[in-house]
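Render this sequence as a predicted structure.
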Amino acid sequence: MPSVDDFSYDEFAYFYENLEEWDLTVRVPSVRRFFVAVDGLRQLSGLAWAEGEPELVLVHGGAQNAHTFDTVALALQRALLALDLPGHGHSDPSPYGSSSPRAHAQDVGRALEQLVSTPQVLVGMSLGGLTSLIVAHERAHLVRHLVLVDITPGVDAHKARRVLDFVNGPASFTDFDELLARTVAHHPSRSVSSLRRGILHNARRREDGSWVWRHQQHPDATLEAPPSGDLWGVLEEIRVPVTLVRGTWEGSVVDDEDEARFLEVQPSARVVRVEAGHSVQGDNPLALASILSELLEG
């Protein structure tokens, strides 16, 4: 494994690590990065996996990026899109800040209008889940099934405090080891190699050797729990099938009260509990891939 002091970042060079870590014996499909205009010159970026019309769209959570779904995509072996939210990954920042699901939904919706021609299984985790909820409400013709990953409109700053404290930590780090140590402390159940890989995708080294998270490069980069209480009404009006994938480990931000309200608002919805924390796609990607495969085949 190359030293972070002499590596030249290639975002497509690490898939073999995902395969080895999860004992996947599948081929790596074609993967390309794309950019699509969403507001004047402002662009949204993402990864297009495999050839052909996408079957599903994956939207990450706050302070993450499209590569958080790499293992899920490898396990699925299907044509799909994984998006970078505004101000995250390789996407341009939003003038409305990093934590506005309504503004993000406008950008994601505009992008999907150009990228897909058939209704998608739309999968949104955390902030990406609230964003996807609004997309499914405002652009129902683009969505055939909505999957919310460890998020409901009931999640607030208190429930998400541990996550917010981590992502809104130091503005920069003197070296890679400092950044890695902080990340390992926050994710003690993950392998160090997977966290190292995740940092390489989600942070960048400055010319002076310091490191900064990609989502903290821009002004107004602080992430907050979105004021999402009004989204219960949006969820109630969703007419496509809805699935909630909820982590059961400490670190999940969805509690029993949230789940009960979710089913009250969407009585026909499905809830699937997975052995994972908040980041289901990182803690248990094969379980999430299995759930999504079932939906696609159903």
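Summary. The beta strands are 31-39, 42-49, 56-59, 80-83, 120-125, 143-149, 203-205, 211-213, 242-247, 270-274. Residues 272 and 291 are 8 Å apart (CA to CA).
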